[in-house]
């Protein structure tokens, strides 16, 4: 991942640029995105799945430069709001290359998707069928997928498991709602059902749940053919591919995953005597997570209750993942070389909660002190896209590095920005 190159005397570089120099220029907290790493990850997906449509899941992180990078690497986009869609359109990605998601699409989301002409709208519930058909109008035509839940409990945390029957995404195959929705969509003259979608969950490092999903979705495709005489040409397997947050953590092996998914799809289609549908996949975290590094400055070191706390100038406002999912990171000292003994510490954020903990049970040099810089690798996904302004702390800037140069992509949120929306008295 970006930022893990071995330091020479503490000098850690990303994309040929020293993190300490970036922190000096842009301040901290700072997010650094390695353009070459993002592009390489996009290409790894294209190489592993040359026959598939690869859609980057914009919710992991989105800005105009990123849209351009993934677009140039041949990926489309999974968007889930008028906001994501509008940003991607403004960045120049053709809407035809986008898929619109959402379990509760607002009228504005649907209108944006249909008026811009997104490639696919993913139907997430029975009540959406009529809404989408009405928004498309009698003279329009919209390609749609139906999101189904194959009853699979996969994902790194209960909060990100979305393919069981007891959560609010998709239509269940098990209770027949998926089949019923297929029948209704097929009766809509202005909706063209191109296939089925499922997104199992997030942070999955094992291919097996996907193989089960392939078999269950192909089984449903066979029933659609038997019942309606319709061959669905597309199968969208969603995203969820897990990455390692700390050295030694498991990660999804992409080439092996691609081989096994392809094998399962071909086998399932052969036994159902179905043509093999075009595959769509929607990786978010695996494209951008390992390409990002967060850089913080140490504000305080406190010894209390038998522990050493190292407090940073960011925390749960720019990275709510530890508080939400109990995820732990592997921060490291950058910008100076220390020969001090490693010592166990708890790395905490600046926010007013005991739960603002970024890393526990990690070691840092015993002489870590205020003013030091800490880098948090694998910070590219679901940090800034989920960031808040808690405690009225502005959100950090994003800098892209490539070939030894850096450029600002997103500027820091200022106190003026924060105050501007407060229009009462
Ligand atoms: N497709 C759909 C329909 C999704 O809902 C998601 C993620 C993805 C694709 C991409 O999943 P990925 O490849 O990034 O795992 N905030 C959580 C993750 C939530 C994921 C939501 N949906 C986290 O920080 O772990």
UniProtKB/TrEMBL annotation:
Homodimer. GO terms for molecular function: diaminopimelate decarboxylase activity; pyridoxal phosphate binding. Its EC number is 4.1.1.20. GO terms for biological process: lysine biosynthetic process via diaminopimelate. It comes from Streptomyces mimosae. It is an enzyme of class 4 (lyase). The active site is at residue 352. It catalyses: meso-2,6-diaminopimelate + H(+) = L-lysine + CO2. Its cofactor is pyridoxal 5'-phosphate. Pathway: Amino-acid biosynthesis; L-lysine biosynthesis via DAP pathway; L-lysine from DL-2,6-diaminopimelate: step 1/1. The gene is lysA. Keywords: Amino-acid biosynthesis, Decarboxylase, Lyase, Lysine biosynthesis, Pyridoxal phosphate. InterPro entries: Ala_racemase/Decarboxylase_C, DAP_deCOOHase_LysA, De-COase2_N, De-COase2_pyr-phos_BS, Orn/DAP/Arg_de-COase, PLP-binding_barrel. This is Diaminopimelate decarboxylase. It holds the Pfam family Orn_Arg_deC_N. Belongs to the Orn/Lys/Arg decarboxylase class-II family. LysA subfamily. The lineage of its organism: Bacteria, Bacillati, Actinomycetota, Actinomycetes, Kitasatosporales.
């Amino acid at each position: 991942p970006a930022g893990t190159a071995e330091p020479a005397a503490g000098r850690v570089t990303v994309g040929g640029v020293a993190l300490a120099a970036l922190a000096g220029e842009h301040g901290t907290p700072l997010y650094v995105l390695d353009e070459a790493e993002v592009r390489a990850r996009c290409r790894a997906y294209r190489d592993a799945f040359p026959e598939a449509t690869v859609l980057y899941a914009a919710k992991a992180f989105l800005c105009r430069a990123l849209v351009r990078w993934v677009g140039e690497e041949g990926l489309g986009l999974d968007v889930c709001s008028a906001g994501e869609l509008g940003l991607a359109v403004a960045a120049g990605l053709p809407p035809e290359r986008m898929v619109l998601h959402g379990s509760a699409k607002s009228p504005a989301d649907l209108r944006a998707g249909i008026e811009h002409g997104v490639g696919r709208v993913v139907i997430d519930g029975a009540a959406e069928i009529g809404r989408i058909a009405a928004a498309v109008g009698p003279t329009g035509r919209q390609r749609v997928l139906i999101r189904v839940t194959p009853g699979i409990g996969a994902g790194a945390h209960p909060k990100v498991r979305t393919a069981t029957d007891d959560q609010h995404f998709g239509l269940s195959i098990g209770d027949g709602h998926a089949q019923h929705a297929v029948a209704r969509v097929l009766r809509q003259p202005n909706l063209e059902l191109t296939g089925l979608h499922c997104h199992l969950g997030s942070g999955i490092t094992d291919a097996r749940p996907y193989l089960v999903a392939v078999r269950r979705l192909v089984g449903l495709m066979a029933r659609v053919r038997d019942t309606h005489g319709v061959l669905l040409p597309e199968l969208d397997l969603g995203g969820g591919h897990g990455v390692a947050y700390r050295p030694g953590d498991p990660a999804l092996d992409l080439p092996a995953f691609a081989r096994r998914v392809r094998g399962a799809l071909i086998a399932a289609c052969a036994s159902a005597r179905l043509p093999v549908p075009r595959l769509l996949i929607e990786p978010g975290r695996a494209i951008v997570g390992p390409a990002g590094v967060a850089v913080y400055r140490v504000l305080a070191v406190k010894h209390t209750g038998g522990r050493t706390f190292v407090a940073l100038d960011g925390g749960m406002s720019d990275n709510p993942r530890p508080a939400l999912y109990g995820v732990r990171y592997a921060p490291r000292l950058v910008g100076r070389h220390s020969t001090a003994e490693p010592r166990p510490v708890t790395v905490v954020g600046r926010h007013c909660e005991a739960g603002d903990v970024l890393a526990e049970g990690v070691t840092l040099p015993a002489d870590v002190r205020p003013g030091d810089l800490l880098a948090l690798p694998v910070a590219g996904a679901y940090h800034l896209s989920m960031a808040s302004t808690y405690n009225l702390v502005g959100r950090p800037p994003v800098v892209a590095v490539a070939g030894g140069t850096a450029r600002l992509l997103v500027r820091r949120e200022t106190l003026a920005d924060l105050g501007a929306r407060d229009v009462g008295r």
